[in-house]
Amino acid sequence: MGRAKSPTKASPQSLTHRANHALTQLQSLVPSASSASDEESPITIIRLSAPILSSASSSESPSAARTSDISNTSLPPSGPTPSSLEADLLHYKELFSKLRFSYVEQVTKEKFIRAIVGDPPLIVTPQENAELEDSNKVAKAELKALKNEVADMVKDLEARGRELAKRYERVKTETVRLGELPGRVERLEREIARLKEEQQVGEGSRAELNLPLAKTLQLVGEKKRQMQELDRQLEQLRNQAPRKRKEVERLQGEVAGLEQKRGNAMAAAKEAKRRREDKGARNGVDELEARGRWYRGSEAVLRELLGIQG
């Protein structure tokens, strides 16, 4: 069996080339506002409303302009806004509803007058009215079903419109990020080159960074064994700590007693020195010194008498 090929890693140059190519394609699909005409500009809700506004402005005279249209008073100089278009749509729906009602009323009056003044007059029987009512019921049911279908279609279109708007905004954001990608790739390439130079400079001082895998694993094992030995010694010292602490406390007590004795001895020595100095100043002999001389003389006499060699 042949050895499987490892996936090739894309180089920074290829990534930069691909990013530039994708950015060029996006810019060709969405031309800039400065070089594109109105027909080539991106589709927006304002552009979609242009035919409606143009037809409405051409069909209505200035004197017949409606007063309920808020777009006449709140329309900004730059053109219609989504809120004004929504108000216009609601107004047109009301107008079409009134127009339909007026049309049905006029047609019904015309039929009634023709039926009366006709020769012979048109007489409608109750059976024909019942059949007409049945057909009207069927037509109303079909109309209601069609209205529900249209409402569902409108909801679906609105949902798709919102989704497409979100996708369009996302594509615009990603296009901006894609335009920044080549510069970021160049900065990263310079940073990688700088790090490689620093690594080459520091290779001489730290040779263990360039060891092969086997020696690196061996060095890691040795460091782990050293750490385990240090952990064992640390555990032993922790176990010995209470006993050493008690021993230190005992020695501190002994030192305190010795310090007290030392203080007493130093005080006695100072007192003896002071008394001797006082006697010497008066050309006399200190009592302790005279007693010491007497003891030494007595010791010498006794040794001579008993024949003890000193």
Automatic annotation (TrEMBL):
PANTHER family: KINETOCHORE PROTEIN SOS7 (PTHR37329)
Composition bias type Polar residues, residue spans: 8-20
Protein's recorded name: Kinetochore protein Sos7 coiled-coil domain-containing protein
Pfam families named in the record: Sos7
Domain of life, source organism: Eukaryota
Biased composition (Basic and acidic residues): 270-287
Organism: Podospora bellae-mahoneyi
Sequence ranges assigned to domain Kinetochore protein Sos7 coiled-coil in this UniProt record: 94-168
Region (Disordered) location: 1-20, 54-83, 261-287
InterPro entries linked to this entry: Sos7, Sos7_CC
